[in-house]
């Protein structure tokens, strides 16, 4: 397995071996486990408390908005680290600087929009 395509073959072989190991472990688990379902075992488990009601609960939208904002900042951080390493390379200074300011401008517009809509206030 030498050469350019040999590396891909090695990765594919390792991926196939990993899939076979996981599938084998799950199959062995299913074959070896005891299976005695009872109505009590099939009820919904809620931290040791008997379930009450129909299971429908509404959540406030602000939780999803905070999660979305976290994802935006996580993507921002993931983009900033490679940018910081490329910025020092010769010939990429001004181009990467402009790219980063455009990207940070979009992030700032999103934060400004969320702030103006009073999404960031916690009540």
- Average pLDDT taken over every residue: 81
Largest sheet, in brief, is: none
The H/E string reads HHH
Ends distance: 62 Å
Tally the beta strands: 0
Structural class: mainly alpha
Radius of gyration: 26 Å
Unreliable stretches: none
Report the total helices.
3
- The backbone outline, from C-alpha atoms, is flat
Helix content: 55-70%
Strand content: under 5%
Main location: membrane
Organism: Nonomuraea typhae
Subcellular location: Cell membrane; Membrane
Transmembrane segments: 6-26, 63-84, 96-115
Detailed description of the structure:
With 123 residues, the chain is an all-alpha fold. Helices cover 65% and strands 0% of the residues. The mean pLDDT is 81. It is flat and about 65 Å long. It contains 3 helices and no strands.
What's the helix and strand layout?
Layout: H1 4-32, H2 61-87, H3 93-116
Search tags:
mainly alpha; flat; 123 residues
Short précis:
With 123 residues, this protein is mostly helical. It contains three helices and no strands.
């Amino acid at each position: 397995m030498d050469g350019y395509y040999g590396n891909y073959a090695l990765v594919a072989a390792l991926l196939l071996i990993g899939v076979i190991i996981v599938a084998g472990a799950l199959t062995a688990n299913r074959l070896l486990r005891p299976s005695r379902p009872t109505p009590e075992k099939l009820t919904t488990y809620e931290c040791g408390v008997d379930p009450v009601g129909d299971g429908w609960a509404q959540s406030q939208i602000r939780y999803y908005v905070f999660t979305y904002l976290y994802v935006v900042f996580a993507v921002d951080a993931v983009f900033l680290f490679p940018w910081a390493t490329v910025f020092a390379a010769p010939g990429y200074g001004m181009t990467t600087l402009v790219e980063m300011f455009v990207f940070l401008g979009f992030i700032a517009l999103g934060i400004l929009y969320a702030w103006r809509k009073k999404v960031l206030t916690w009540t």
